[in-house]
Structures are given as C-alpha cells and as structure tokens.
Amino acid sequence: MDVVYSELHALQNGAYELIGGQLQPPVEKPERAETIRAAVEAAGFGPLLSPESFPDDTITRVHTPEFVAFLSTAWDRWVEAHGPYDALPLNWPVRTFRQKIPEAIDGLLSYYSLDAGTPITAGTWKAARTAVDVALTGARLIQDGKRHAFALCRPPGHHAAADLYGGYCFLNNAAIAAQYLRDNGAAKVAVLDVDYHHGNGTQAIFYDRADVFFASVHADPLQEYPFFLGYADETGTGAGEGCNANYPLRWGTGWETGYADALDDACRRIHGWGAEAVVVSLGVDTFEQDPISQFKLTTPDYTRMGERIARLGLPTLFVMEGGYDVAALGDNVVNTLTGYLN
Ligand code: Q9C
Ligand code: ZN
Q1: For labeling, which of 12, 103, 175, 309 is most exposed (least CB within 10 Å)?
Q2: Coiled-coil annotation: which residues (predicted)?
C-alpha cells in the first residue's frame, strides 16, 4: 500500500497543553508521526511518497476563505501582539454572546476555535497545509485507480469544521480528500471515522449534503470530548437527511462489548447507501492504553478492524487522525492496514 508522508509535520510542535488542570507536554506531538512512519516502513509498506502540491482552492471547497486567511496569518499576528509563545484562545462566543468577527488576534482565535488545547505555533500553518497535500496526494492515487492508500497526516483534521479549528486539528484533511474525490469523478463518497473522538468537523461540513455519507464510531459525547456533537439522533439535514450515522459508545467499550457491532452497522450503512469510495479517518486512540481515552481495543483488534473495512470492497483512502500511545501507535496502525490488505 502506498504511504504518503512529509517530514514537515514536525513543524507543528506545541509547548504545552492543559490536561486536567495541569500544564503538560502536548500528547499530539511529532513523535507520533515518526513512530508510525518507522512502523509502516518496517512492515514493508510503501513506497513512501512525498506529497504533491495542490492549490488552495481544494481547501476552500471545504473551509471558508476567511478561515484560511485567519489560520495562515494567525501566528504572525499573535507574535506581534504577545511574542513568540503558543497562540491560545481563552474565551468563546457561547450562549448570550454575539457571533461578530473581532479585529484583535485574541478575539479572532476565540471566534475560530473550539478549544484551548490546539496551539498555533510558528510552523502550524506550514504543517497543516502540508498535511492537506498529503491527504490529497493519497486521494489522487485513488482517483488514478489505486484500490487503497495511506495518508500519514499530521496534524490531524477531523475536528476542524468549515471555519473552526480545535482538537489538535486545523484543516480537515479527510473532508478535503473526500471533496476532492467528489470533484474528480466519484458521485458518492463515504467517510468512516473510527477515531475515539467524534469527527464533529467532518460531520458539520457534510451535514446537509446527499453526496457524502458520514459514519462515526466514537466515545459518547455525554462523557467525552467534543461533548456537544456526535449523538445518535444527528442523522443529517435537508438533502443530507439520512446521510449521517453516529455510534456513540460508553467509556470502557471493547471490541466484543459493542465496538465491532457498531463498526459493522456503520459499514452496512455505507454499503447500503452505495458509496463508490471510502475515506477512513483512522484514529487509533480507541486503544486500551491510550493516555487520553477510555476504550479497550487491543492491538490484535486493529487487524479485525482492517478486515471489516476491507469487506466494504471499496477504494479506500486511510487518513491518519488521533492516537497518543506512542509505544503502540505503530503496531496499531500497521495491524489496521495489514488486516485491510489480507
Ligand atoms: N487539552 C484527536 O484525536 N482533549 N483529537 C482536550 C484539553 C482534546 C483529540 C484536552 C482531544 C482532541 C484528533
Ligand atoms: Zn481522537
């Protein structure tokens, strides 16, 4: 299986993250992508391809131009205001507030973000922009007739909506890839999101559309981030009614205790809908030892996950999302891809 990778991911390198009230080293760190790259190479996947450059209009098919302009200039504006420290928002336009776009950089960070756990640093734009090229290079391989590809994206993307960043995500790599497949020949594309967290950004981007089906298996938002989206009664709206399927599962869920059944039903829905290609938002933060998650999947379970995805019989683009136990990340990703291929 072709693997698309760029070392420029390492330009996203936050200094700290507030977890449980304590400033800690970020869990979303460069070592993640490096360990995955080493593992897929050691497992014989390849070739390892560098991304091609795609134009910005592939991004603005999914994100607003204002949001892209904000992201690409936020660091410089923040440094001008505060100095060279991670740019982080501290308040949000929640209930009772208006949704005006402020002038000051602090207000813009608040307007365009959904949390304070996603630092904008000197290299964030370059890293996020390159991750889009990684995903699109994978999409082009599928478009050119390959049955499968792995886009080793970092930073991840599925929490980013048309004009929102957060959850370690800036640009929605999987959504941009799905849109690219739509714009270049595929009439119906599915996104299957198996990251531990609900893919709120991807859902929001396609929520009113009948040409992209979104299915997500994730921790119950009553218990888990992002808390305010990802419930089972979110089924799409307007033309997109019936094209969104959420499978919220309780903390402690394992492969045999709910996960496999949910994944099977998500695949059944995608198949029944008539998808021509599938983009898999591949998070492996469902792992039992993941430092920020509460599911119980084991390393062998990822082989089973890959097998189930392969049974869809569709051209498949895997796009890397979350997964934070660096010691097991490589094995879990390799098992997913190996299970898919065998
Ligand atoms: N800093 C992905 O797996 N946790 N994102 C917030 C406060 C956010 C996970 C903790 C988890 C986001 C792509
Ligand atoms: Zn996640």
Answers
A1: 103
A2: none
